[in-house]
Amino acid sequence: MRFLKKDKVEKEDFMDLIFKYHLSMEKYHIHIIYEGQIDETITSAFISLAEKNMNKQNEDSKLIRKVYHIMVEFLQNIHKHADNPDRYDSLSNNRGIFLMASKDGGYVVVSGNFVLREKIPGLQDLLMKVNFMGAKEVKDYYQRKILNEGLSDKGGAGLGLVDIIRRSESKLEYRFENIDEKYSFFILKTYIAK
Amino acid sequence: MDPLFIEESFRTPKVDLNPKEGKFVFAGRSLPENPTEFYGDVVKWMEQYAKNPIPNAEFEFRMTYFNTASSKVFFTIFQVIDKLNVSKPGSDNKIVIYANEDDEDLIELFEYYQELLTSNCLELKNF
Q1: Are B22 and B93 spatial neighbours (Cβ–Cβ below 8 Å)?
Q2: What is the CA radius of gyration of chain B?
Q3: What local confidence, expressed as pLDDT, does residue A11 receive?
């Protein structure tokens, strides 16, 4: 919100902003939206929230369980893999935006975070590969990772992404928006149908 | 062998490994992004235990949630148990994974695990 500060926005404008924001939240059936540092505390808070919903024991418990697992993989992806432009201070490390909304009876999960532009080709290759996987390839990929990585902290975003398509049974949508010559903003979206 | 007990936290499960009482339980959530920190000692304990195991033990996994990083570590633990069955014919150590019956994703993961293990040690039970 730095740009607003610079423009010396009056208090009233922030009130307008909040109200518009609220209307958008309603319009798009947004349950959670958050932008800022994504760390373990934030992830834990979202997990508590999701679990509370899950414990309501409604007919959607199966769907909510899927959303919950997918949310955690999204958040951990940001925490582990987001790059931090120099203009942000260290308090803004692992910055990202995260959204969960209802849509057509299912749920949408979207995230956005900075990535170094040099990483885009590799990330695109990985996403394309993951999106083309069928049930057999998902299983093979999983089993290879389970066998070879075991108790190690190595391993990229691959298994997390594969796990997301395994659970959502839908392709990942993604986009890169250029920020400057060094960074891009990476947007990732999935849909979990009922 | 000394038991290993780790209290449950929000992000890590309760680990209660007690050969004297014949009790081996993992319960709760498992969310560590870097599993070495939490599971390093657990895996070391399992490897020590495997040198002098009790016969036909049952390892319970009552996990409400675990992330992909944990799914890899669990397999390392399963392998230790699987090897016990393979190396001593007639031994029947079990790993019981608890799942909700509508949790297709966990049941699918269970099948991935099962294919990778040699002995018939994995069992699925309703939460």
Answers
A1: no
A2: 14
A3: 62
Strand-pairing partners, residue A97, are A35, A112
Number of CB pairs < 8 Å for A and B?
75
Q: What order do you get walking across the sheet with A95-103 strand by strand?
A: A30-37, A95-103, A106-116, A183-192, A173-178
Give the pLDDT confidence of A132-171 residue by residue, as tens digits. Answer: 999 999 999 999 999 888 777 666 678 999 999 999 999 9
* Per-residue confidence band for B90, with pLDDT thresholds at 50, 70 and 90: confident
Tell me how many domains chain B contains.
1
pLDDT for B45: 97
Beta strands in chain A (DSSP E): 30-37, 95-103, 106-116, 173-178, 183-192
Give the structural domain span for B61.
Answer: 4-126
Q: Which CATH code fits A2-192?
A: 3.30.565.10
Q: B115 contacts in A (CB within 8 Å)?
A: 143
Cβ proximity of B10 and B29 under 8 Å: yes
Cβ B122 vs Cβ B109: under 8 Å? no
Stretch 53-92 of chain B: residues touching chain A, C-beta under 8 Å: 65, 67-69, 71-73, 75-76, 79
Compute the half-sphere exposure of residue B13: CA atoms within 13 Å on the CB side of its CA. 26
Q: Which of B100, B10, B73 is nearest to A47 (CA)?
A: B10
What would the pLDDT profile of B30-81 be if each residue is shown by its tens digit?
A: 998 778 889 999 999 999 999 999 999 999 999 998 999 899 999 999 999 9
Helix ranges, B30-89 (H)? 35-49, 68-87
How many residues does the structure list for chain B?
127
Domain ranges of chain A: 2-192
